Amino acid sequence: MAKLELRNINKIYENGFHAVKDVDLDIEDKEFMILVGPSGCGKTTTLRMIAGLEEISSGDMKIGDHLVNDVAPKDRNIAMVFQNYALYPHMSVYDNMAFGLKLSKIPKTEIHERIDKAAKILDIDQLLTRKPKQLSGGQRQRVALGRAIVRKPEVFLMDEPLSNLDAKLRIQMRAELIRLHNELRTTFVYVTHDQTEAMTMGTRICVMNNGIIQQVSDPKTIYNKP
Ligand code: ADP
Ligand code: ADP
Questions:
Q1: Residue 15 alpha carbon, nearest atom of ligand 1
Q2: I want to staple 207 with a disulfide (CB 3.0 to 4.6 A). Which of 111, 157, 181, 215 is the partner?
Q3: Is 96 in the pocket of ligand 2 (CB under 6 A)?
Q4: CA of 125 to the centre of ligand 1 (A)
């Protein structure tokens, strides 16, 4: 069970800027939740607080039944994929995907099985010996997703993961992320400022503005489509 509960979450940065204000949000298990809103409205800050990469100033954050306010990122069973996917350039695709698992002392055979499975799902099984520079943008993005999947996270956080891709690839990857969500059956929280992405991918959309939540609803209601 990986339901997320955000209760009265605030983020005040060290310079005094109040970036997230009294955010109350329930994200259901296996939901595909989109955080949408203009640049600077607090989407990334919210995502980073869920991941534990940013301390919350006040409020309560729960993952499943656990209060995680003081739980380190590595103990949260969460994976995060960014727009600049930061693969290790000197490592093969296989080693990029294996790296975190080796650090966690997962047995080699298990690592092998997980990579094999993820690579098939993402259609990168022919690319495992390549280096990142020998891949296209879309392939690199898939490797970044693969590296997250093999960790078997309960929650997948994505911060504008498609924004560096060209329009055609972006459309293709949207469809792939929807398929991935269906296959993995995990909770997705996806940040974008792209209305089309929000409309086509999310089961629900959370609209933020100036650090507050304006509305949480299904795509049709938000965008007024019949
Ligand atoms: P979004 O993801 O919606 O574009 P962010 O969450 O990145 O917005 O940022 C929200 C606001 O907080 C912005 O005004 C940003 O400038 C500010 N901000 C982000 N990081 C910091 C920081 N470390 N210190 C001070 N202000 C910050
Ligand atoms: P280690 O690096 O700990 O010796 P292994 O013995 O499992 O790990 O594999 C040796 C290297 O062979 C790996 O680091 C990886 O670069 C490569 N490798 C292993 N399995 C595959 C595979 N299925 N596809 C591509 N490369 C692989």
A1: 25
A2: 215
A3: no
A4: 38
Half-sphere exposure of 37 (CA within 13 A, CB side): 21
Indicate the pTM of the whole model: 0.88
- Identify the residue whose C-alpha is closest to ligand 2 atom 6: 108
Q: Whose CA is nearest to atom 15 of ligand 1?
A: 40
Q: How far apart are CA 116 and CA 114, in angstroms?
A: 5
92 lines ligand 2 (CB under 6 A): yes
CA-to-CA distance for 56 and 22, rounded, in angstroms? 11
Q: Do 156 and 79 form a contact (C-beta atoms < 8 A)?
A: yes
Going from the C-alpha of 108 to that of each of 17, 42, 54, 112, 211, the distances in angstroms are 46, 40, 33, 6, 44
Whether the Cβ atoms of residue 104 and residue 82 lie closer than 8 Å to each other: no
b/e for 45-57, b at 16 or more Cβ within 10 A? Answer: bbbbbbbbebebe
Residue 129 Cβ contacting ligand 2 at under 6 Å: yes
Q: What is the pLDDT of residues 135-187, one digit of tens each?
A: 998 899 899 999 999 999 999 999 998 887 888 888 888 998 999 999 989 99
